[in-house]
Write a structure and sequence with these properties.
Length: 144
């Protein structure tokens, strides 16, 4: 099942024919926008050929790592389009690109916690650092 993602691809020009130029405007969750002109998006994944070259993805395959998410969806979701174990959450949870820059500092108030994992209501493993720059409430309970 594919869930709604709160991000969108905004093609400034959608030219379908191979060899045509297309400028594509891609916005990531943190608001950064990547505008790149280049040969048209022949595989329909939302990335033109220059963008695919820059990312190392296959311009002839909409899902280069075969994880079920297109290269364009992965770029705008800040996941790795070349790693099938890394993809957007089914629940549509926003993943921020800063997740790879986080260094845990400890467990005291004000420190950065380890990148622990929990299971969400879709039975998918979610990782804390994916939600950097967002407010996250974590409720713990223990039973004996
Ligand atoms: Ca493409
Ligand atoms: Ca592609
Ligand atoms: Ca993919
Ligand atoms: Ca992936």
């Amino acid at each position: 099942m594919r869930a709604y993602l709160p991000f969108s691809l905004t093609p400034l020009a959608s030219l379908g024919a191979i060899g045509c130029l297309a400028q594509v405007n891609l916005e990531r969750p943190d608001g950064t926008v990547w505008t790149e002109g280049g040969a048209a998006d022949a595989d329909g994944d939302g990335l033109n050929v220059d963008q695919e070259d820059a990312l190392g993805t296959d311009p002839g395959n909409p899902d280069s790592d075969a994880d079920g998410w297109t290269d364009g969806e992965e770029y705008t979701s800040a996941t790795n389009a070349l790693d099938d174990a890394d993809h957007p959450y089914e629940g549509g949870w926003k993943i921020d690109a800063c997740r790879n820059d986080i260094e845990p500092t400890g467990e005291a108030e004000g420190q950065v916690a380890d990148n622990f994992e929990l299971t969400d209501q879709f039975s998918e493993t979610v990782r804390l650092h994916d939600f950097c720059d967002q407010v996250v409430y974590v409720i713990f309970a223990a039973f004996w």
